[in-house]
Design a protein that fits this description.
The chain is α/β, with parallel strands linked by helices. The chain has helices at 49-68, 71-87, 89-100, 104-121, 158-171, 186-195, 211-219, 232-243, 267-279, 299-312, 331-346, 378-381, 397-405, 420-427, 462-467, and strands spanning 17-19, 22-24, 28-34, 39-46, 129-133, 137-145, 148-152, 175-179, 204-206, 225-229, 248-252, 257-261, 289-295, 350-353, 368-371, 388-394, 412-416, 434-437, 456-457, 470-478. Helix 2 runs antiparallel to helix 4 and helix 9 (267-279) packs across helix 10. It is globular, with a radius of gyration of 23 Å. Bound molecules: nicotinamide-adenine-dinucleotide. Nicotinamide-adenine-dinucleotide binds at residues 152-156, 161, 179, 181-182, 210-211, 214-215, 218, 229-231, 234, 237-238, 252-255, 286, 383, 385, 411, 451, 456.
């Protein structure tokens, strides 16, 4: 996140905060590292308390007029913004790859997906509901916006993870202060620059900053709602801080997703799908597969086919068009994943592919498949959030289900079988926010996504996600 200024040459500095419809700077700054090189390549302003107060005040001023616009009018602003995002796709994707590390093609997909899902959300109608209407009285359930929403995002998919809560808040009539991770602030600041032309001043404010800025947001007396995406640990801090002002919270937190592979699968057909769902973005996806439970009848074949996939995958700089897996996004996470890998090796588990970390300046870890590992190991119990995945054997489906559910996490999970009905019967018993059959990792504008247990509170996307930025109000009229 930082380097000695004397080491920095030729770095990009064309980034600004967005406060009250205008580009803004501050007295502090963040250095941004390209994880493929380990070098600082850009610097941007970092907001302090003053900038936060100004942004919140601007959002508060903008709120009444924005709230009083119709859904259709707000959707129109969001559509123009999404069009503009798509027009800037190439430039934004390159910046995303530089700061986040993912391959350029996946960075482009992230931007398209953000725009498409945002547009999709604005086609969801929010209507008052008539609960009772008779000669005596009419009772209606209405929905009104909360006010100012603080949106805090992590570093693994900064554009896509901003788009869901941002659109939910804006479409429903709230104004926003958006804060990205200090590791990946640049695309979000550019997103703010693009948004300027399409929204009334103050409706969207974008501030880069560290964890402290996030804390100040969660404590701020004039922010009404926090839409937080990040780790379980920080999510708990957010909830505790929000309690002081009874802010509403949506928490989209970590996961330790299990995939249960039944005895009737074709291992060669299933392995590439399992591999992709585990290793895309080098495993730095909240809903990536993080544990694979394979039936003993297919265990060896699944392990072998996954190892083949891992050996084939091309790891490198996201700017290289042949790259399939980029680096770990930041040094702290790299050290953590390397630590888990070393511990796994020492435990005597079998490393089937990968496992040797190259000595490069970039934060590269090869895709690593681990077999015959202890269920109580760190790799199985914790969210690794990196390219190392354990494959565990089971004999009995009930036992597989018990082990899959034996975690404090509950984001998502999947069951794989040549018989979808059989798999669905088991999937229905996963203690998760989303249970997939024969696929893993999919979101859409109209389908709620979020975590059970410690993986979160509330949902994004869909009517349910939108209503998380609205307060219900019952209006009861006595007619006589
Ligand atoms: P993180 O919790 O460290 O940081 C996320 C954001 O919160 C950053 O902007 C950070 O500056 C801010 N922050 C940190 N501490 C804070 C605090 N006490 N109060 C307010 N803000 C604070 O997470 P990360 O390392 O950036 O992201 C990785 C984690 O995010 C993983 O656990 C991953 O599973 C999770 N994640 C979840 C989802 C989901 O939809 N459920 C999606 C993506 C990532």
């Amino acid at each position: 996140m930082s380097a000695h200024p004397a080491e920095i040459t030729d770095i990009r500095t064309d980034f600004a905060l967005l406060i009250d419809g205008a580009a803004a700077t501050s007295t502090s700054s963040l250095d941004v590292i390209n994880p493929a090189t380990g070098q600082v390549f850009a610097r941007c302003p970092a907001a302090g308390r003053d900038e936060l107060d100004r942004a919140v005040a601007a959002a508060r001023r903008a709120f009444p007029a924005w709230r009083d616009m119709s859904y259709a009018q707000r959707a129109e602003c969001i559509h123009r913004f999404c069009e503009s995002l798509k027009q800037h796709q190439v430039e934004l994707a390159r910046l995303l790859t530089m700061e986040q590390g993912k391959p350029l093609s996946q960075a482009k997909d992230e931007i398209t997906r953000a725009a498409t899902q945002s547009e999709g959300m604005t086609r969801i109608p929010i209507e008052p509901e008539v609960l009772e209407d008779n000669s005596q009285r009419r009772i209606e359930l209405q929905w009104f916006p909360l006010g100012v929403a603080g949106i805090i995002t992590p570093w693994n998919a900064p554009i896509n993870l901003a788009a869901g809560p941002l659109t939910s808040a804006l479409y429903t009539g709230n104004c926003v202060v958006l804060k990205p991770s200090p590791y990946t602030p640049l695309c979000t600041l550019k997103l703010g620059e693009i948004a300027r032309a399409h929204f009334p001043r103050g409706v969207i404010n974008v501030l880069a900053g560290g964890d402290d800025l996030g804390r100040w947001m969660t404590e701020h007396s004039d922010i009404d709602k926090i839409g937080f995406t990040g780790s379980v640990e920080a999510g708990k801090e957010v909830m505790a801080a929000a309690a002081k002002t009874l802010k509403r919270v949506t928490l989209e937190l970590g996961g330790n997703d299990a995939a249960i592979v039944l005895d009737d699968v074709d291992p060669k057909a299933v392995a590439p799908k399992l591999f992709f769902a585990s290793f895309v973005n080098s495993g730095q996806v909240c809903m990536a597969i993080k544990r694979i439970y394979a039936h003993e009848r297919v265990y060896d074949a699944i392990c072998g086919a996954l190892a083949d996939e891992a050996r084939k995958a091309k790891v490198g700089s996201g700017l290289d068009p042949d790259t399939q897996l980029g680096p770990i996004q930041n040094r702290e996470q790299y050290d953590r994943v390397v630590g888990i890998l070393e511990e796994t090796k020492r435990s005597g588990a079998r490393i089937l592919a990968g496992g040797d970390v190259p000595a490069t300046a970039g934060y590269f870890i090869p895709p690593t498949i681990v077999a015959d590992i202890d269920e109580h190991s760190r790799l199985v119990r914790e969210e690794q959030f990196g390219p190392i995945v354990p494959v565990l054997k089971f004999t009995d489906e009930e036992d597989a289900l018990r082990r899959a559910n034996d975690t404090r996490y509950g984001l998502s999970g999947s069951v794989w079988s040549s018989n979808p009905d059989r798999a669905a019967a088991l999937a229905c018993r996963l203690e998760v926010g989303t249970a997939w059959v024969n696929h893993h990792r999919a979101t859409s504008a109209t389908v709620p996504f979020g975590g059970a247990k410690e993986s979160g509170i509330g949902r994004v996307y869909s009517e349910m996600g939108l209503k998380a930025y609205l307060e219900p109000r019952v209006v009861s009229v006595l007619k006589s």
